[in-house]
Specification:
This is DUF6449 domain-containing protein. The protein has 761 residues and is α+β, with helices and mostly antiparallel strands. It contains 26 helices and 16 strands.
C-alpha cells in the first residue's frame, strides 16, 4: 500500500514538473481539435445550403449528413490534425521528460533522492503516455459530441475515430521512444535534435544512395520492386496502415504488429541506454564513447557516396562507355569523406581543433567508401549478371513495357482498384516454363552486354525492348530485374512465342482475359461504354454484345503469340470507357445536383487471325473491310517529309556541327515540318480522283490504331503523313470531325504517291 501510494505521489510530482507540457496537450486536443471540427462542420453547413433547394428533403438530409460525416472522419481519423499533434507532442514529451540528464546540478539532485533509476524511468515514461492519451481521449469525445449535435455521426465516423485512436497511440509511442533514445545517446539538446533526425532519415538516405548507384552502374536494375521508403520508420509504418485503411477500411494487423514490435524494441533499447548512461556524460555530444567511431563512419560513408552520385548526374557520366569526369567524382567523394569525418569529430568535441583528431576514422570511412564504390562499378556481387537456376524458380512474371495496351495501361484488381502493368502481373502472372525464360534472359543479356561495349557500332537490325522481370524463387525470395530483349533476334522470337503464347502470360498481362473485368461487368456501381472500330470510325456496342464478343475473344486469344501479333496490323479495336459514380461527392450543376465520377479507358486489339471474333463482328454489322469509307472522302493530302534527302542535303551544306546532325521536327495542328538545319524537304500532294482515293484508302490506317509498340512489329511509314478530309455532309464529319490523320503501313506506299512526293533538287 505504501509502495503504491509512493508511486502515485511520484507521478503527481512529475506532473507538476511537466505542467507546461500538459497545457500544450490540452490546447492541442481539448481546445484546437474540437474547434477545428466545429469550424469544419460549419463550413459544410454553409457550402451545402444549395442542396436543400436542389432536391427533396430526404435526399438533401442524406447528402449533407454524408458530407458532414466525411469532415468528422477527416478530423478524427488518420488524415487529420491529430497526426501533426502526435508528432509534436511525442518529441516534446520525450525530450522534456528526461531533460534533467542535460544538467549536472539536476543529475546530482535526482541521484541524491531515494528513488531507484528503474522507478524514475517508469514514472517519466508513463507520464509521457498519459499526457497524450488523456487529452486525446477528451478532445475526441468532445468532438464526437459536437458531431452528434450537428447530425454528423454514423457508424463509420465512430469506427474511424476509434481505429485511429489505437493506431495513433502506437504511432505516438514510436516517435516518443525514438526521441527518448536520441536523448539517451546524447548529452546536449541540439545534438539530440540531430540524433532524432538521423534516426528518421538515415535509412532513407542509404536507400536513396543504393538505388542511385544501381541505376548508374547496373543495366538490369528495375525500379519496380524497390523503394526509397524506410522500412524501420514509424512514419512509413504509419503510412502503410493509413493506406490500407483508406482502401479496405480495415486495420492492417501485420503492419500494426510490426509497428508494435518496433515500439517495443526501441523502448527496450532506450531503457537499456538509460540504465547504462554514465553520469559524467552530461553536457557531452555523445553519451557512450564506444558509439562515436561507428556513428561517424556510418554517417560519413553514405554522405560521401551521395556526393559522388550528385557529380554523376551533373557530368552525365556513363561508366559503361566512358570515364570522362571520373576525376571529379573521385575528388568530390574523397573530399566528402574528409570533411564529413572532420565535421562530426568537431561536433563530438565542441572544438574546431577536433577536425585534426581521429584520422584513423577518415581512413576507415575512405576505405569503406572506395569498397562500396568499386563493388558497384565492377559488380563484385554479381547483381548485373544474375539469372537464377531454372530449378530454383517457382514462377516468373514477365512484363513488356507498352505491349498490346493501345492507348491505355490501366489494369483492375478484384476490388476495382487500378494497378500498373507490373503490379498486375506480379499478382496474376505465374509463368512455369522457367527453362525457356532463363534461356531468353541469358541470350538477351549476353547480346546486350556485348552491344553496350560496342557503343555506336551496334547492328542496325537489332532492337532492344525493355521489360520488367519478377523471379519468384522456391526459397520464398522475390527478385526484380530489368531485361533488354532483342525482339528482332530469331531465337529470341521463338522463345518469346513460347512465353507470350502461354496461357499464364495472357492471364497476367492481357486486359481482355481478366476475370476482374468480368466481375466489373457484373457490378452495378460501374458503368461501361463499349465501342468497336478503328479509333476514327467507332460504333457503340451494347453490353450484352460485348459480353458475347469478350467470350469469343478469349477463345481467339489462344491463337496469339509473339510472332503473329508482331507481323499483323489490328483489324480494329474494342474501346471500353469505365466510369464509377462517387455517390456522396456532389456539386452544383447547371440543372441541379450533379454527382462526381471517376473513369478509366481501356482498349483491346482485334487481329485478322482472330477469325471467330471477326465473324461475330461481321454478323453484327461492326466490321469494316477497309479502314476508311471511300464515300466519305472529299480529298486526301499526303505529306512526305523526305528525311533521308534532308539529311544528305544538310551534310552537303555543312549544316552538321561537330559531326552530329541536328534534326528538328515541328508539329502544328495541320502539318509536320521536317528538316535538318535550314533545309526544307517536305513535299505535298493532293488527291481527289476516285481511283487514286480508293487505292490510297486500301493501304492506310489511323495513326492511333497502329502504334509504335514494344515488339517493333508492323508500323506506319515515318516519312509520310496522310490527312483525310471528309465530305461536309458525311456522318463521320458530324461524329469525328472534318479530317483525320492516317498513315501508310511500312512497305505499302503506292508507287504514284512515292513519285508525286519525292523531293527533287
Amino acid at each position: 500500500m505504501t509502495s503504491k501510494s509512493s508511486f502515485l505521489v511520484s507521478m503527481k510530482e512529475n506532473n507538476k514538473r511537466r505542467l507546461w507540457v500538459w497545457v500544450i496537450a490540452v490546447l492541442m486536443f481539448v481546445l484546437a481539435l474540437p474547434l477545428v471540427t466545429a469550424f469544419g462542420l460549419g463550413g459544410v453547413a454553409k457550402s451545402t445550403e444549395w442542396i436543400w433547394e436542389a432536391t427533396d428533403t430526404a435526399t438533401a438530409q442524406q447528402l449533407v449528413h454524408q458530407q458532414k460525416a466525411e469532415v468528422m472522419i477527416g478530423m478524427l481519423g488518420f488524415s487529420g490534425p491529430i497526426v501533426f499533434f502526435s508528432v509534436i507532442l511525442a518529441l516534446i514529451s520525450g525530450v522534456q521528460g528526461f531533460s534533467y540528464l542535460y544538467s549536472r546540478k539536476k543529475m546530482d539532485f535526482y541521484l541524491g533522492m531515494p528513488v531507484k533509476k528503474r522507478k524514475r524511468f517508469l514514472i517519466i515514461w508513463l507520464n509521457g503516455i498519459l499526457l497524450y492519451v488523456i487529452p486525446y481521449l477528451a478532445g475526441m469525445s468532445i468532438s464526437l459530441l459536437i458531431g452528434a449535435g450537428n447530425g454528423a455521426l454514423n457508424g463509420g465516423v465512430v469506427y474511424s475515430a476509434v481505429a485511429a485512436f489505437f493506431v495513433n497511440i502506437c504511432f505516438y509511442l514510436g516517435i516518443y521512444h525514438l526521441a527518448i533514445l536520441a536523448l539517451m545517446m546524447t548529452g546536449n539538446i541540439v545534438i539530440t535534435g540531430f540524433g532524432f533526425m538521423v534516426f528518421c532519415l538515415y535509412e532513407f538516405m542509404v536507400r536513396y544512395m543504393v538505388m542511385g548507384y544501381k541505376q548508374e552502374f547496373f543495366d538490369y536494375f528495375s525500379y519496380y520492386g524497390t523503394s526509397e521508403t524506410p522500412l524501420l520508420s514509424p512514419f512509413s509504418m504509419y503510412e502503410k496502415l493509413v493506406y490500407t485503411f483508406d482502401v479496405k477500411n480495415v486495420i492492417d494487423i501485420k503492419n500494426l504488429l510490426f509497428l508494435l514490435l518496433f515500439v517495443l524494441v526501441v523502448g527496450l533499447v532506450s531503457y537499456g541506454c538509460y540504465l547504462k548512461r554514465p553520469a559524467e556524460a552530461t553536457g557531452k555530444a555523445m553519451t557512450f564513447e564506444i558509439t562515436k567511431p561507428f556513428i561517424k563512419v556510418l554517417l560519413t560513408v553514405p554522405i560521401a557516396l551521395i556526393s559522388g552520385l550528385v557529380i554523376f548526374e551533373r557530368v552525365n557520366m556513363d561508366f559503361n562507355n566512358a570515364t570522362e569526369g571520373i576525376g571529379w567524382v573521385i575528388f568530390i567523394t574523397a573530399l566528402a569523406v574528409v570533411l564529413g569525418s572532420a565535421l562530426i569529430q568537431v561536433i563530438y568535441e565542441f572544438d574546431i581543433k577536433g577536425a585534426l583528431h581521429k584520422k584513423r576514422d577518415i581512413f576507415i570511412s575512405g576505405a569503406l567508401t572506395a569498397f562500396i564504390f568499386f563493388a558497384f562499378q565492377y559488380d563484385i556481387f554479381g547483381y548485373d549478371s544474375y539469372i537464377p537456376d531454372p530449378d530454383k524458380i517457382e514462377s516468373i512474371a514477365f512484363v513488356p513495357e507498352n505491349y498490346e495496351q493501345g492507348n491505355s495501361s490501366i489494369y483492375f484488381d478484384s476490388d476495382g482498384t487500378h494497378l500498373t502493368a507490373a503490379a498486375y502481373a506480379e499478382k496474376y502472372m505465374y509463368l512455369k516454363n522457367t527453362d525457356a525464360f532463363c534461356e531468353l534472359a541469358k541470350r538477351s543479356m549476353d547480346a546486350h552486354n556485348e552491344d553496350v561495349k560496342k557503343g555506336d557500332d551496334v547492328d542496325e537490325n537489332k532492337w532492344y525492348s525493355y521489360n520488367t522481370v519478377i523471379y519468384r524463387l522456391k526459397n520464398g525470395r522475390t527478385v526484380y530485374r530489368a531485361l533488354w530483349v532483342d525482339v528482332e533476334d530469331e531465337r529470341s522470337g521463338q522463345l518469346l512465342d513460347e512465353i507470350i503464347g502461354s496461357e499464364e502470360f495472357k492471364k497476367g498481362y492481357m486486359i481482355g482475359t481478366s476475370n476482374n473485368l468480368n466481375r466489373m461487368l457484373a457490378q452495378d456501381k460501374y458503368k461501361l461504354t463499349v465501342s468497336y472500330g478503328n479509333t476514327v470510325y467507332m460504333e457503340r456496342m451494347s453490353l450484352e454484345e460485348f459480353k458475347e464478343l469478350l467470350e469469343i475473344y478469349q477463345r481467339d486469344l489462344e491463337l496469339a503469340n509473339f510472332s503473329n501479333v508482331k507481323n499483323s496490323v489490328p483489324a480494329g479495336m474494342i474501346q471500353l470507357a469505365v466510369t464509377e459514380e462517387l455517390p456522396w461527392s456532389v456539386y452544383q450543376g447547371a440543372s441541379g445536383i450533379a454527382r462526381a465520377t471517376r473513369g478509366w479507358d481501356m482498349s483491346i486489339n482485334i487481329y485478322p487471325f482472330y477469325e471467330e471474333s471477326l465473324s461475330y463482328l461481321k454478323e453484327h454489322g461492326y466490321y469494316m473491310d477497309m479502314q476508311l469509307k471511300t464515300e466519305d472522302i472529299a480529298s486526301i493530302q499526303v505529306v512526305n517529309n523526305n528525311y533521308e534527302a534532308a539529311r544528305k542535303l544538310a551534310e552537303k551544306q555543312q549544316a552538321v556541327e561537330d559531326g552530329e546532325m541536328d534534326r528538328e521536327i515541328y508539329t502544328t495542328a495541320s502539318s509536320t515540318y521536317a528538316g535538318y538545319g535550314n533545309v526544307e524537304t517536305r513535299v505535298y500532294a493532293d488527291y481527289t480522283e476516285e481511283v487514286q482515293l480508293k487505292e490510297i484508302a486500301e493501304c492506310i490506317y489511323p495513326q492511333d490504331l497502329v502504334l509504335a509498340d514494344w515488339d517493333k512489329g508492323k508500323r506506319l511509314e515515318g516519312d509520310y503523313r496522310v490527312i483525310v478530309n471528309f465530305k461536309a455532309d458525311s456522318a463521320i464529319t458530324k461524329y469525328y470531325g472534318t479530317s483525320a490523320d492516317y498513315g501508310f503501313v511500312e512497305g505499302q506506299v503506292p508507287e504514284f504517291v512515292k513519285e508525286d512526293t519525292v523531293y527533287k533538287e
